Automatic annotation (TrEMBL):
This is Dual specificity protein phosphatase. SMART domains: DSPc. The gene is DUSP3_2. It comes from Characodon lateralis. Its EC number is 3.1.3.16, 3.1.3.48. The keyword Iron-sulfur does not apply. It catalyses: O-phospho-L-tyrosyl-[protein] + H2O = L-tyrosyl-[protein] + phosphate; O-phospho-L-seryl-[protein] + H2O = L-seryl-[protein] + phosphate; O-phospho-L-threonyl-[protein] + H2O = L-threonyl-[protein] + phosphate. InterPro entries: Atypical_DUSP_subfamA, Dual-sp_phosphatase_cat-dom, Prot-tyrosine_phosphatase-like, Tyr_Pase_AS, Tyr_Pase_dom, TYR_PHOSPHATASE_DUAL_dom.
Length: 147
């Protein structure tokens, strides 16, 4: 009910699962609420490949924000809101808003304290390198073309 009152139309759970370090929700949990749910079964460990879900997460966030003619609201969460979900939001900002990793992380940190684990930070750095090489980051396009 609280999410509905806040106008949330979509929920992205970046910690889907039944173990202690996960959040046990599913599409059925949100049935009848009008909220669209998507879950990613991510572990908050340095060796977990969250980057395999970056595109999927960004697509879901895009669709959610576009809902109701751009008035959709997406709630992205994990168990603590400190590592997994912020990593997904940073990747989204990089991929869809052409922010480099530092700016995207600073943007999220401006709103709340976050701390992606070292493995997730490495994956964001790898994404940054890939997007920079492809000329898909603001401020990086000129650098890429002059090399």
């Amino acid at each position: 009910m609280r999410l509905q009152k806040l106008g949330v139309t979509h929920v992205l759970n970046v910690a889907e699962g039944t173990s202690f370090m996960h959040v046990n929700t599913s599409p059925e949990f949100y049935a009848g609420t009008g909220i669209t749910y998507h879950g990613i079964p991510a572990n908050d460990t340095e060796d977990f490949n969250l980057s395999a879900f970056f595109e999927e997460g960004a697509d879901f966030i895009d669709k959610g924000l576009a809902h109701h003619n751009g008035k959709g609201k997406v709630y992205v969460h994990c168990r603590e809101g400190y590592s997994r979900s912020p990593t997904m939001v940073v990747a989204y900002l990089m991929m869809r808003h052409k922010m480099d990793a530092r700016l995207a992380l600073a943007t999220v940190r401006h709103k709340r304290e976050v701390g992606p684990n070292d493995g997730f930070l490495r994956q964001l750095c790898q994404l940054n390198e890939k997007l920079a090489k492809e000329g898909k980051l603001n401020g990086e396009v000129g650098k890429t073309k002059t090399k």
